[in-house]
Amino acid sequence: MVDVIRRLAPSEEMFAAGEVFIGYAARVSGRLDLPALTAAFEAVARAHPILRARIESSADGGRVFTVTDAAPQVFVADGDTEFAFTGAKFDQRTGVCGLCVVRDGDTASVTLVIHHSIADAFHAFAIVTEFWAGYRDAVGGKIPESPVHAFPESIEHLLAARGIEKMALPGAGAAATAPQVPQPRDDDYPTLHTTRCRLSREETAALVALGHRENVTVHGLVSAALLRTEAEIRELPLTGLLYLYSVDLRTRVSPEISATEGTNVLGFANYLSPESAVTLVESARGISAALHAGLAAGIVQRTPLSIPDMAAAPRPALPGVVIATNWGTIPPLPEQGELRIDDFHSTMLAKPDLTGRRPQQPGGGTCVISTFAGRLSVEIHHPEEFTQLQRHRVEVLARNLRAVHD
Q1: Alpha-carbon distances of 140 from 32, 36, 337, rounded to whole Å
Q2: Which region, left, alpha or beta, applies to residue 128 given φ > 0 means left and ψ of -120 to 50 means alpha?
Q3: Which of 125, 162, 277, 402 is deepest in the core (most CB within 10 A)?
């Protein structure tokens, strides 16, 4: 039986257009119990009905969430753990979640794959934590069980419930054309490679200490380093780069929104450097100040309500757009006894943008910033032909991050 739940809101539709799936990948070593892994996955799918959803076209040209009783798929393959999707196939019309396991001897990648339309990273990590807790319980002979969650609402609905209304954004003009909803696609996902800039625990601790001394956030420092890196690689002044990044709104509205209450509870912030002759710390301070000003004015909280206008507006006139998302500090995952979680990082599946509206960075998409087990990581997902470019990019980024506290 298939039930239509509701129509996708613009904040969800923007990820359905490119059929974007995000992978939350754990690199593990030791004894991996596949039956326990499957039991844990089935338990979170029961607890979160949205994981059993599909995204289907509606008669009026939009898209709707439908839900079935079918469990999401589990894919198991032997191969290179760098390629987390080996042997897997995803299609939002048949499912929005899956579990991918790629084994190589006594190591494996275990990736919980969740469509971006149904959960942002902050929602997903609540599920990831439940999943690994369920695995621990299943290995110990318990049946993993979690309370059943309601189907999450869109950020548009959650803002309206709090009396937060759309406002004209600074610098916004009239929309050029009405955004169109792309039709269902049968093209294959391109294979994306991941290039990482990963600091050691000591280097990460030094960056955090610098932030404390200078009263700036690690996000601000990493963002400033990203901008400096792009200015060097693209041979542009800092003033020629527009920095765009997402902001978790859960604690920035009243009443606060719980982790799984909404799908994508994200606002958007931007920063344009007023001058090029600034230090990295000064740039970080400017990024943080701009964010605080945008939040204080209520602008960032309202940006989701302008997604249709942003999608229809002309592309930015500046030659350079830099896009990032910050997962923050990934919560410690439940200990697993004979199985060690050695690393955790992002993976991604996305089809090429056919609308021409999704900004692209040279050779890749959004930079994902995170910290796991005390180590800062910046990841870029890109086609194979851009591997050399991205390796150069992360080498320059690493140099800029290390230089700031040398």
Answers
A1: 13, 9, 10
A2: alpha
A3: 125
Q: Does 116 qualify as catalytic in the annotation?
A: yes
How many structural domains comprise the chain? 2
Question: Using one digit for the tens of pLDDT, what is the confidence trace for 361-406?
Answer: 666 678 999 999 999 999 999 988 889 999 999 999 999 999 887 6
What CATH number does residue 211 fall under?
A: 3.30.559.30
Q: Per the confidence metrics, is the pTM higher than 0.85?
A: yes
User: Taking a C-beta distance cutoff of 8 angstroms, is the pair 312, 358 a contact?
Assistant: no
Boundary residue ending a domain (138, 155, 172):
155
Q: Which domain holds residue 23?
A: 3-155
Residue 166 lies in a domain: no
- 253-283 tens-digit pLDDT: 999 999 999 999 999 999 999 988 899 999 9
| Residue 175 in domain | no
Catalytic residue among 115, 116, 123, 219: 116
Q: Is the bond preceding 362 in cis, omega lying within 30 degrees of 0?
A: no
Say if residue 130 is in the same domain as residue 199: no
Q: Give the pLDDT band of residue 336 (cuts 50, 70, 90).
A: confident
3-state secondary structure of 112: strand
Q: What would the mean pLDDT of 197-204 be, rounded to a whole number?
A: 96
Q: At a CB cut-off of 8 Å and minimum separation 6, what does 208 contact?
A: 218
Query: What does the angle CA 180 – CA 11 – CA 370 come to, to the nearest 5 degrees?
Result: 130
DSSP E strands: which ranges in 216-334?
241-248, 266-272, 320-329
Asked if 24 and 346 count as a contact pair (C-beta separation under 8 A), the reply is yes
- Claim to verify: residue 243 and residue 385 sit in the same structural domain: yes
